[in-house]
Design brief:
The protein is mainly α and about 100 residues long. Among the domains are: about 35 residues; about 35 residues. It has three helices and no strands. The mean pLDDT is about 80.
Length: about 100
């Protein structure tokens, strides 16, 4: 990029007929050089970056997962028991209904 700036600067020096244009071109060249020399500063981050989780956090996460999985297991067992009870009630009621239909004839 500096080659392009040097070529442009040489071309501006050769074009000395229009002094106002030459002055503007030199000013633009100086601004371009200053912009090239000074790096643009990025705004600083407003938050702190976390390096990682501590051992206590990992233990808490593991404990929460264990408690949650045990709760899920108990809920599944309760659902299975409820399904068995509902099936038993349905079979008993169906048998009673069949007996009542036979006696009613």
């Amino acid at each position: 990029m500096s080659d392009a700036l040097d070529k442009a600067e040489a071309a501006v020096r050769e074009a000395s007929t229009d002094t106002a244009a030459v002055q503007l071109a030199f000013a633009a060249m100086e601004l371009a050089k200053l912009a090239q020399q000074q790096p643009v500063q990025q705004p600083a981050c407003q938050h702190q970056a976390r390096t990682g989780r501590s051992a206590g956090e990992w233990l808490a996460i593991g404990g929460a997962v264990c408690v949650g999985s045990i709760g899920l297991a108990f809920a599944s067992i309760a659902l299975a028991i409820a399904a068995c009870c509902a099936t038993g009630c349905f079979l008993i009621l169906r048998r009673l209904w069949q007996d009542m239909q036979r006696k009613g004839r």
